Please model this.
Amino acid sequence: MTATPDLGTRSPQLASPDLLRSVFRRHAAGVAVITARGDAGPVGFTATSLTSVSAEPPLLSFGISLGASSWPAISETEHIGVHLLGDHQQELAATFARSGADRFGSPTAWSEGPEGVPVLDDVLAWLVCRIVGRVPAGDHRIVLAEVVLGDPSGPGSPLLYHQGRFNGLRD
Model:
């Protein structure tokens, strides 16, 4: 028989989108920016759902909403860029998270990288990946991508997202 947890004065909530968002606000996550070349120019978005999936072959995954402005490009492209942001890049993370922002305009520094993927400057690390799958998951897609090449040698410490804010890592 399973023991019932002592909830004290707390009362559990039924499953809902608000419950899930509230719980995951308490989960600190690394911050990444995913980029791709779209028909009308580069696209990108901030992601906290980046996950290492496999070392052999090197695979990663991330989630993207079907309503995201970047989804049409991500749904059709073969290659994406994955950028791990440093704690000095809070404004860059906010720019790529903000709806309607000119994400690739000044002051964003970037260049066209391998496979035509937009590569952001001064990040902790970046990868160019080939998309190998797009898995339906509610109102999102889980994108699986195989690493093609990258650079893990950028400056700084990781940027984290917690309680609705971007923060640096503290000891």
Summary: The mean pLDDT is 93. The chain has three helices and twelve strands.
